[in-house]
Amino acid sequence: MPPISRGFHGRRREVAGAEGRVPPGQYVTGDFLVLSAGPTPHTPLDQWTFSIRQGGDVRRAWSWQEMRALPAETVTADIHCVTRWSKLDTQWEGVPVDTLLGQVEHDARYVLAFCDGGYTTNLPAGDVTGGRAWVAFGFGGKPLEPEHGGPARLLVPHLYFWKSAKWVRGLELRDEDQPGFWETYGYHMYGDPWKEQRYAGD
Ligand SMILES: Nc1nc2c(c(=O)[nH]1)N[C@H]1C(S)=C(S)[C@@H](COP(=O)(O)O)O[C@H]1N2
Ligand SMILES: [Mo]
């Protein structure tokens, strides 16, 4: 099998150790690009909450202080944007979503992440549990920059990065899979980068 870097040129860098880690149709970049559908919101931390909602009720909510008092993990992950850049070995700090959903008794099959600014994205509940998703507030050993979703964003590295909702403020528990912001515009409901699930029908 030829090295995956063959044929890449320009800023599509060859990266040692990238073999087998870059999904089809992606190139590796060292940059951390900013992709936002709107302006960067700036919610003061004393007004920030993270809530689990269901059917119009708030099932559980954490203040910023309460969130930061929960045990956090350091996560190293490769991230894959649907616009075809991948960034390897990104380092995050965050609270596992398992810890949060573990405090709410439910049998919902889906979640819809909601954010300051109105962005939403949908995920199966099983994809934000099992140690595969975090509410991340640190990046590269520093507080997460506002442009990248600070104070806190969802981190779901095994799906295309649009599922990693910036400025996340909570999860809505749902029985049905309701499309979020980009999904309404034709992006894939699930978004597995290894299956190139970029658009509906992929
Ligand atoms: N709230 C919110 N979250 C978002 C987005 C957005 O526009 N608003 N863009 C998504 C997309 S398409 C991508 S690729 C990543 C980009 O994250 P970054 O700007 O930190 O690179 O955030 C995702 N999360
Ligand atoms: Mo994206």
Concise overview:
The protein is mainly β and 202 residues long. 7% of the residues lie in helices and 32% in strands.
Task: Provide the descriptors you would attach to this structure in a database record.
202 residues, mainly beta, Sulfite Oxidase, Chain A, domain 2, 6-stranded mixed beta sheet, 5-stranded mixed beta sheet, 3 helices, 7% helix, globular, disordered N terminus, binds molybdenum atom
Descriptive notes:
- The chain is mainly beta.
- It has one domain (4-40, 48-195): Sulfite Oxidase, Chain A, domain 2 (Alpha-Beta Complex), CATH 3.90.420.10.
- It has helices at residues 64-69, 97-101, 181-184, and strands at 27-28, 49-54, 57-63, 73-80, 85-96, 110-115, 120-124, 134-139, 142-143, 153-155, 168-174.
- Strand 6 (110-115) and strand 7 (120-124) form a beta hairpin.
- The longest helix is centred in the N-terminal third of the chain and has 6 residues, at 64-69.
- Residues 35, 81-83, 161-162 line the site of molybdenum atom.
- The site of molybdenum atom has 6 residues, from loops.
